[in-house]
Amino acid sequence: MNPPLFHLGQAVVCTNDDFTLLLVQNPVIQTPKRGPIYTVRGLYATHRGYGVTLAEINNAEVAPGFPEANFHEDRFAAVPPVEEVSLAELLEETVLA
Q: What DSSP string describes the chain?
């Protein structure tokens, strides 16, 4: 099996938030939505790759006696790192331009 696409603590965004089948099976499951940034809380090897749980969503109590619902890693994309920019440097570049 290939290594997981993400690591614990990594920022990700949901690229496919169509969880219709999952919600039919259990309508109280919280699912990620497109737009917000999430943090990978857990990685789980499955028969089809890796599933992730997210720090911002907790489904541990949704189905007692079963593992917490996780979401296939293919539904997510990594958030690129944001460069730290000094406001003073940014203003200096703007004034010089």
A: -PPPS--TT-EEEES----HHHHHH-TT-----BSSEEEEEEEEEETTEEEEEETT---TTTSTTSPPP-EEGGGEEEPPPPPP--HHHHHHHHHH-
- 36/29 Cα distance (integer angstroms): 17
pLDDT tens track for 24-60: 988 999 999 999 999 999 999 998 899 999 999 999 9
Q: Which among 74, 84, 8, 77 is positioned nearest to 36, based on CA atoms?
A: 77
> Would the pTM count as exceeding 0.90?
no
